[in-house]
Specification:
mainly alpha; about 0% strand
Length: about 160
């Protein structure tokens, strides 16, 4: 799981880096770029500024990473399509059989046990909803804190650039 998350994060960073390179090239090619260069420099992210200063070795590695990632997806995408097709074929059948099994088991239980099971399911569902709500609040709080930290360091970078 950690490798997947890391892979996704690296892929996202590469996407941002490529987009930043494209924007930087478009800005450099624009005839009006010189008149707004200081303003454009202010709006760029540190990653975009770093992309402009990349060494040829880093650019070569970026190309190799992109090529390998493209090759990986060329092999992976058909397999994912096969998995999707198999799930679409078998999951409805399995769900139907599991439903029949559950019905038979429930019918064999006494009414008292059925009522206890129903109440337990209701309480567990309520707990799950509370957990979901609290998790969303916690994620929002951490997102706010993350934005504050990023803004603080962005301001410090701006001050450092102005001191040069």
């Amino acid at each position: 799981m950690r490798r997947v998350v890391t892979g996704i994060a690296v892929g996202s960073l590469l996407s941002v880096a490529v987009a930043g390179s494209i924007r930087a090239a478009a800005t450099a090619a624009s005839p009006s770029a010189g008149s707004h260069s200081a303003e454009a420099h202010e709006r760029r992210t540190p990653l975009e500024n770093a992309n402009e200063q990349r060494s040829p070795e880093v650019q070569e590695l970026d190309g190799k990473i992109k090529a390998l990632r493209d090759e990986f997806h060329a092999a992976l995408d058909p397999l994912q399509d096969q998995i999707k097709t198999l799930k679409e074929k078998y999951e409805p059948q399995l769900k139907d059989l599991e439903g029949q099994r559950k019905t038979l088991i429930e019918q064999a239980k006494s009414p008292r046990i059925q009522e206890l099971d129903r109440r337990e399911d209701e309480e567990l569902a309520a707990l799950a909803q509370r957990e979901k709500d609290e998790t969303e609040k916690l994620k929002a709080r951490f997102a706010d804190e993350r934005k504050e930290i990023q803004a603080k360091y962005q301001a410090q970078r701006k001050e450092s650039r102005n001191e040069r």
